[in-house]
Amino acid sequence: MRLTRFTDLALRVLMRLAVIESADDRTPPTTREVSDAMHIPYTHTAKVVARLQHLGLVEARRGRGGGLALTPAGRLASVGGLVRELEGPGDVVECEGSTPCPLAAACRLRRALHRAQEAFYDSLDEVTVDDLVASPTGPLLIGLTGR
User: Could you tell me which of 139, 114, 119, 106 has the C-alpha nearest to residue 15?
Assistant: First the structure.
């Protein structure tokens, strides 16, 4: 299973916000600062932040003293749940697209791939955003700077 670039970026943004928040001497980063530190194009970062904000995982405050902050729900979010939400519904393979597979009605491969996809998500259900930033990852993320 391969994650979309959007999901990958969303997880990395959440991880960056999780470690910034835990570093007491830091002010909340802006979307620009996160994009620079993570080497992600600003426009992509802005779209990711908007989606994470819509999901209630990130707070974005404008103006002086503003910036991005991880919500408690964001910190404790299950990576499996996030990936399911960001990837959306769908199977690993497209059996009924514009050119339907002639085996779709009795295919064992589709069922096997669906079970494998669910096992993938299930294994990520046990992992939270906080877990992702445990040492040695957290200190590395804190040390990242812009380009």
Answer: 139
